[in-house]
Write a structure and sequence with these properties.
The complex is a heterodimer of chains A (163) and B (259). Chain A has 163 residues and is mainly α. In chain A, 71% of the residues lie in helices and 0% in strands. Chain A is globular, with a radius of gyration of 17 Å. The chains are: A mainly alpha (163), B alpha+beta (259).
């Protein structure tokens, strides 16, 4: 039996279901809620163009996270050429007036994540925040599992020290 | 006790739900006698919790209409020049950015249009079938089970559906975050398979899939064992440990599927 093609409708339906999670992953990538939504929008457009590449036996969000990561790499390269890469000090999302202890804490965690080297941040975001398995995260990032786990371990170490 | 028997990598893999059942049992047994080991595991768990809490807001906010529009746009329309994030960023005024972050523009008219659109997406716009849409409620938070689907998820033991049931439940399991989840197949309209996890808001639908093998002209009834591969792989990825047996399932049901 040949592998069935994903239908465009099925991809659309899955996109709607995972939109909140794409937005969350976007924020761990970009540190900015609006940049994150721009990135999600670009990634949706890319996904619709190549919807046939999604294999229904692969988890949909893993496929989307891979597309988002590639779109982000393209964006960072473009920013690099313009010399406008965000400095980590600017990073961290606006969360309204950080009045409560909880809000301050969340802000501190966001900043700590933002300060991680990109490759560790991606591993942390996919496994610890998005809850992907090692295998899925490695596939989304297009790296071997051993590379993923060592980046994850380093990212965790840094976060434990910072927090 | 002997903490050196587990490497840091092994402890992390344990917290991430990546160990085999045997390895998991060994660690859990050691944790009962080794306070330092238990403390290390708890630190790793706390980090996971904190990270999820720090980025949880994105899940609770209304989804901007432009993203819904993007999902609904034709692939050809998407082939226009790629949006430039930096340009878009510059174009936004600071006041607008602040206002949109706190309360996205969200009129009731826009919201009802959006929900209509989402229901269309969910059940396929070519065949609007009210029986099926009565099982799902689409909101800005995602898709939540309603009606007979909620009743089945709450009450129906796995694998016990009568022949004419609207919903089959085939198995129950716990997700990595501890939530209880159950797989379902609905038979109202086109068969739809997926799994739902119980959180504070209700049964959140995680993956939905039509039966990819079914011809619409044939009224095949998907058997419980015939979950589409997309759903099965999603379940395998989401599941922590093994599926619940009948006793565990009954205990979970008695607790209302919440801790």
């Amino acid at each position: 039996m040949t592998q069935p093609h994903a239908s465009l409708e099925l991809v659309r339906r899955n996109l709607v279901a995972v939109l909140p999670r794409l937005r969350r992953f976007g924020r761990t990538l970009t540190h900015d809620a609006h940049d994150a939504d721009d990135l999600v929008q670009i990634s949706i457009e890319r996904a619709l163009l190549k919807y046939e590449q999604w294999r229904p036996d692969a988890r949909f969000e893993s496929w989307m996270f891979g597309i988002m990561r590639n779109a982000w790499i393209d964006e960072v390269r473009a920013r690099g050429r313009r010399g406008k890469v965000l400095a980590p000090e600017e990073a961290g999302m606006e969360v309204g007036d950080p009045t409560s202890e909880d809000q301050l804490r969340r802000l501190a965690v966001q900043k700590a994540v933002a300060a991680l080297p990109e490759e560790q941040r991606l591993a942390v975001a996919l496994v610890l925040i998005e809850g992907l398995s090692y295998q899925e995260a490695a596939a989304a990032l297009d790296i071997p599992i051993g590379t993923l786990t060592s980046r994850l371990a380093r990212g965790r170490d840094t976060l434990q020290k910072l927090l | 006790m002997n903490i050196m028997q587990f490497s840091t990598e092994t402890l992390m893999a344990y917290v991430d739900g990546e160990l085999t059942t045997d390895q998991t049992r060994q660690i859990e047994a050691a944790m009962t006698t080794d306070a330092e080991l238990a403390r290390q595991v708890e630190r790793q768990r706390a980090l996971r919790r904190e990270l999820r809490a720090a980025f949880a807001e994105a899940l609770d906010e209304p989804i901007p209409a432009r993203l819904i529009d993007a999902v609904d746009s034709s692939p050809a329309a998407a082939a226009r020049p790629v949006i430039d994030i930096e340009a878009a960023r510059t174009a936004r005024t600071p006041t607008l950015r602040r206002a949109r972050w706190s309360w996205p523009e969200w009129t009731s008219v826009a919201a009802s249009l959006l929900i209509g659109l989402l229901i269309g997406l969910l059940i396929g716009r070519t065949a609007l079938q009210p029986p099926q849409s009565s099982l799902f409620n689409v909101s800005e938070h995602g898709i939540v089970a309603t009606g007979a689907l909620v009743a089945a998820l709450n009450e129906q033991p796995s694998g016990s559906a009568p022949a004419n049931a609207v919903v089959d439940i085939s198995l129950s399991f716990r997700a990595r975050n501890g939530d209880y989840c159950r797989t379902f197949i609905t038979h109202a309209g086109a068969p739809t398979a997926g799994f739902a996890c119980r959180d504070a808001q209700g049964w959140q639908i995680h993956t939905v899939s039509e039966n990819p093998g079914a011809e619409s002209s044939h009224q095949y009834r998907m058997a419980s064992s015939e979950l589409p591969p997309a759903v099965l792989s999603a379940v395998q990825a989401a599941m922590a440990g093994e599926a619940l047996d009948a006793t565990e399932e009954q205990a979970a049901r008695a607790k209302g599927w919440r801790e």
